[in-house]
Amino acid sequence: MQRYSDCPQVLRDFLAYHESIKGQSPLTISEYHLDLRMFLRFMKLMRSDMPVNTPLETIDIRDVDLNFIRGIETSDIFDFLSYLATERVYEPSSPAPDHGISAKSRARKLSAIKSFYKYLTVRTKLLEENPVADLEYPKIRRSLPKYLTMEQSAALLQSVSGQNQVRDYAILMLFLNCGIRRSELVGLNRTDVYEDRIRVVGKGNKERFVYFGTPCRKALDDYLEERNQKVLTDDRALFGSRDGNRISVSAVHRLVKKALLQAGLDVTELSAHKLRHTAATMMLSGGVDVRTVQEVLGHENLNTTQIYTHIESTELKIAAQANPLSHLDYSKKE
Fold it and tell me: What band does 111 get if pLDDT is binned at 50, 70 and 90?
């Protein structure tokens, strides 16, 4: 936990618990760290003599102790959520940044706070009162996921070119065939590739096998022939980068954007995650049961997968309207 030396001991203990006992992924631990660090910095700012415009990033919270946390009330947490909704800078690197982050981002931070207080009150019993126990999450507007059509998917695969063409093509094939997450693809090792499937480590370090077809197998074989001639700093890694390291999430994001641009597709609407949506949608349109798709995608809750059934309903309606026979009407007139 040396990497969290900017945090108080109570927060480091919480992160260690979720890392070693709960087995949460490094990404989840990192998000807890960032969200709770921001929360405690805001609390310290509100309860000190510092100017209210003091940047949160400059506030030292290493002296925060249990007594400080015990003094935080529900109204203080409402103030933090209000700050996130109206004052927190969105994309600070932008020339004209907006203020206020999305309901989804606020919900994630509240989820981290709830987990923190559950740890303090239920797991360790260091606190008796939980000020966020009954707090509702911000209402999130759910919209249908955007995805590629069959023609767009074909155009994307045909567009792949450049120095890393074989690697990039294999990555896109895995996204479109297996519907895995970017973080899952980055974590793949060479030993995770089997004859007709890959072993994926998903959220919460849960493992699953995802099967693929012959074209995807061929794409992987072509890439492995190239990969096995290279030595990486982490030589277990399936996919490597030009600098000899395991490929990063940001590098995957860039290569997908590049392929989308080369295919003439809208990069503002589409991304690596949309390829996951595409895989799910195509599975359902091919007649795969929604519970099977849930297993393939590694969704914990069926509700998360069922959003794709709404897409399918929309597609079926459009297909029915597109059928020329649907416009024929020879009913008898009175």
Answer: very high
Question: What's 324's DSSP letter?
Answer: G
Long-range contact set of residues 111-116: C-beta below 8 Å, sequence gap at least 24 = 111/137, 112/31, 112/32, 112/35, 112/36, 112/39, 113/35, 113/36, 113/39, 113/77, 115/18, 115/32, 116/11, 116/14, 116/32, 116/36
- Roughly how many angstroms between the first and final C-alpha of the chain, as a whole number? 81
312 alpha carbon, distance to own chain's centre: 23
| 278-318 per-position pLDDT tens digit | 888 888 777 777 788 788 887 777 766 666 665 555 554 55
Helix (H, G, I), strand (E, B) or coil at 95: coil
Q: How far apart are the C-alpha atoms of 179 and 157, rounded to whole Å?
A: 15
pTM of the model: 0.61
Residue 98 is predicted with a pLDDT of: 65
The residues annotated as belonging to the active site are 181, 203, 273, 276, 299, 308
**Which residue is listed with tokens 């003439």?**
264
